[in-house]
Design goal:
- The complex is a heterodimer.
- Chain A contains 8 helices and 7 strands; from the N terminus they run βββααβαββααβααα.
- Chain A is α/β, with parallel strands linked by helices.
- In chain A, α3 links the parallel β4 and β5.
- In chain A, α1 packs across α3 and α4 crosses α6.
- The longest helix of chain A has 14 residues.
- Chain B is globular.
- Helix content of chain B is 48%, strand content 14%.
- By secondary structure, chain B is of the alpha/beta class.
- In chain B, the strands form 3 sheets. Chain B has an 8-stranded mixed beta sheet with strand order 10-9-8-11-12-13-14-15, with helices on both faces. In chain B, strands 3-2-1-4-5 form a 5-stranded parallel beta sheet, with helices on both faces.
- The chains are: A alpha/beta, B alpha/beta.
Chain lengths: 171, 543
């Protein structure tokens, strides 16, 4: 049985909850979605491919699709129960818990260097797991961090030189 | 031949690099010159014409790819790798690093070329600096707020290029000239305040009603400027249009910003307000008609990277719009004597560009009390130049020509200038005293090196600080080492010994130069009277 439940809000919009935690604003989910898109405007405009972590109630995806119809959007979800419920948006939904495997299976999408934007309300109540999932998709892993910040884990002298340059750029 | 130039700094710096680009073109007329600049500086491209191809380095994009949690840092890796690959496909013969930053030095390690100039890493290790000017630039320029030389001059020398010649003849001024105010800079510390500029503009319009007065701004600044200035007062221009605007502009009043360098290129007369971290000696516009006003506050100039540490922006507060109007009026009317008289009463500092035989641009501090400071700076500059050129090329230093330059009649009017002659006398005595101090210190170091810790020794030589602090220039390396915490006693003593040897060499160079100067002066009938601090009847004794 799915842990995800549809709930009616006073405004008549249906939103999802997980273990009694709402996955978006009950008062005005569309306004919340618009504000989320606006906050991430610079990132969205700069990229051709967008990954969104957290399907939530899907309203934020609908707003994103409406505002940016030409972007290639892919939604990533950690919770397997999303396979049992109706998808409320047009973009592709990828469900899985292994970022490396997802990256491998969605090579064509990831080779375009998408920005991976989280929708944090949709992480409830598994915030830590979703954040780790998000970081994995964006390859902000220990390996990359070590290369960038600690100067270790290189496989060649050339690679070391490039990462060292990058480190100087953000010092 | 293919040449790559790394100019990975801000817009104003890229403009200052134009002198180097012109020198590279002059030395290599048939070569293809390609320049790599940051994305934020790309608006400069249409303005600088000595470049065959521009490469834009997406610095902001790469930085975002690294720091934004939503981006993949491997994207930054890929972006940088692609740029490097594209550049290496060009197979450059020579690469010049004009940027002199750690990033650019690391970047040089990625570029393949037969010859590399400027600072660079090689296989992850910093390449030993063989050019003495480059070493000086590296050790001194970025760590000290003083500088004997202008940034452009030092940079050219540090990459084995000829002297800077970025001068235009200042254009003649019509009866109803066009004049402009550049009211914003890139750094809030360097800003004078839009209220002050508003006040100044009102007064300028009253005093010069026939002139066309404009307030300059970029499209990004328009909204901010519209709060204080009306639409018909504003000229919102991008860089290419700014260059065209300045061709017809006679005067500019500005803060320390890239716009002043644009104006200098077009022969505009410039009155600059240097505030905050703006450094007169390092980054004044290379212009023959340039007056710089700055504060006398002890904290000026501050470090670029640090915020203002005081409760108010005192360096800007001490300059009033009325004062700027007065200065401008006297300066543009070329009333030198009233300007000097006014300056003597003012609490501000004023510098004007003059051309010296050994320096295309020397910043002369106005005001009678600054005379000796100017002479010392000029002499120090010439001394450093001889010393660094000698270290660089191992040639016989041109003491004779240097002395001839220094004693050219039209520079300081030797025959009338008793202050200068008396000062030269005293300088001789000072040099001897300093040489004795250096000798004492070297002896103490030899005795203390094996028995005393670096920290204890630094305390012990405290008594000499009063003497040496005055001589900041020649002893800068000594002061640097003295203030550093010693990781290793032996290394510290060795470094301080080397620093003193350098100071001694500089003092001896100046001493030799002084003796040649006196030879020249005697030839002109101006006598040197040893060990006497004023000229007595020397000139009447002469047959």
């Amino acid at each position: 049985m799915s842990h995800l439940q549809w709930t009616d809000t006073p405004s008549g919009i249906q939103i999802l909850s997980r273990q009694d935690r709402l996955l978006c604003s009950p008062r005005n989910p569309f306004k919340e979605a618009e504000e989320w898109v606006e906050r991430n405007k610079n990132l969205i405009q700069a990229a051709t491919h967008l990954g969104v972590v957290g399907a939530g109630s899907g309203i934020h995806i609908q707003v994103l699709e409406k505002n940016y119809p030409n972007k290639n959007i892919c939604v990533f979800e950690l919770d397997p129960d999303f396979s049992k419920i109706e998808k409320k948006f047009q973009s592709q939904l990828i469900i899985g818990n292994d970022p490396a495997l997802i990256r491998e299976n969605q090579k064509e999408f990831f080779q375009n260097w998408p920005v991976i934007i989280p929708f944090r309300p949709a992480f409830q109540p598994m915030d830590a797991a979703y954040v780790e999932f998000w970081m994995g998709l964006a390859q902000r892993t220990q390996v990359t961090t070590d290369k960038l910040l600690k100067g270790s884990g290189y496989i060649s002298a050339h690679e070391e030189k490039i990462w060292t340059c990058l480190r100087e750029l953000v010092k | 031949m293919k040449i790559l130039v790394l100019s990975l700094l801000r817009m104003g710096d890229v403009l200052l690099h134009e002198a180097a680009l012109q020198n590279i073109r002059k030395d290599n007329p048939q070569s293809e010159i390609q320049v790599l600049i940051n994305d934020v500086a790309q608006k400069i491209c249409p303005v600088i014409t000595s470049v065959d191809r521009w490469w834009i380095f997406p610095r902001k994009t790469i930085q975002n790819q690294i720091v934004q949690a939503e981006s993949n840092p491997n994207h930054a890796f890929s972006t940088l790798s692609n740029i490097v690959e594209q550049l290496n496909q060009e197979k450059f013969d020579v690469v010049y690093n004009l940027s002199h930053t750690k990033f650019s030095a690391r970047f040089m390690d990625l570029i393949q070329a037969k010859v590399k100039k400027g600072i660079f890493f090689e296989n992850g290790q910093v390449k030993k600096i063989s050019n003495s000017w480059l070493k000086f630039f590296n050790d001194y320029f970025s760590k000290s707020n003083n500088s004997p030389f202008h940034y452009s001059f030092m940079l050219n020398k540090s990459v084995d290029l000829g002297p800077v010649a970025l001068y235009r003849d200042v254009k003649s001024v019509s009866d109803k000239p066009k004049a402009a105010l550049q009211v914003l800079t890139s750094d809030t510390k360097k800003n004078w305040g839009l209220e002050n500029w508003r006040n100044l503009l009102d007064q300028l319009k009253k005093s010069y009603p026939d002139w066309q007065w404009w307030v300059l701004g970029s499209p990004q600044e328009k909204q901010q400027l519209q709060v204080y200035f009306s639409q018909d007062e504003l000229q919102i221009l991008d860089f290419k249009d700014l260059s065209l605007f300045f061709k017809e502009c006679a005067y500019l009043i500005t803060g320390d910003t890239s716009v002043q360098h644009m104006a200098a290129r077009e022969g505009v007369k410039i009155l600059s307000l240097f505030l905050g971290s703006a450094n007169i000696f390092k980054t004044a516009a290379c212009s023959t008609s340039n007056l710089i006003v700055s504060s006398d506050e002890s904290c000026f100039p501050c470090w670029h990277a640090d915020p203002c540490h005081r409760s108010e922006h005192f360096c800007g507060k001490t300059i009033s719009p009325q004062e700027v109007l007065n200065i401008f009026s006297l300066w543009q009317r070329k009333e030198q004597a009233p300007l000097e008289a006014w300056i003597t009463k003012s609490s501000l500092q004023f510098h004007q560009s003059i051309s010296l035989p050994w320096q295309p641009q020397f910043l002369w501090q106005l005001g009678g009390s600054a005379a000796m400071k100017n002479y010392q700076r000029a002499l120090s500059q010439l001394t450093w130049q001889i010393y660094l050129d000698k270290e660089n090329k191992h040639e016989v230093p041109p003491y004779g020509s240097a002395a001839m330059w220094f004693t050219e009649e039209n520079i300081w009017n030797w025959r009338q200038n008793q202050i200068l002659v008396a000062w030269l006398n005293r300088r001789d005595l000072s040099i001897d005293k300093l040489l004795k101090v250096v000798s004492d210190l070297k002896t103490q170091i030899s005795q203390a090196a094996s028995t005393v810790s670096a920290a204890d020794f630094a305390h012990r030589i405290f008594a000499y600080n009063a003497v040496l602090d005055i001589e900041g220039d020649y002893f800068f390396r000594f002061h640097q080492v003295r203030q550093e915490t010693a990781a290793n006693n032996f290394l510290w003593f060795n470094q301080i010994r080397q620093a003193l040897i350098e100071s001694e060499q500089l003092l001896l160079t100046e001493k030799k130069l002084l003796s040649k100067i006196w030879n020249e002066l005697e030839g002109k009938g101006i006598n040197y009277v040893p060990r006497i601090t004023k000229l007595s009847e020397a000139s009447s004794i002469e047959a």
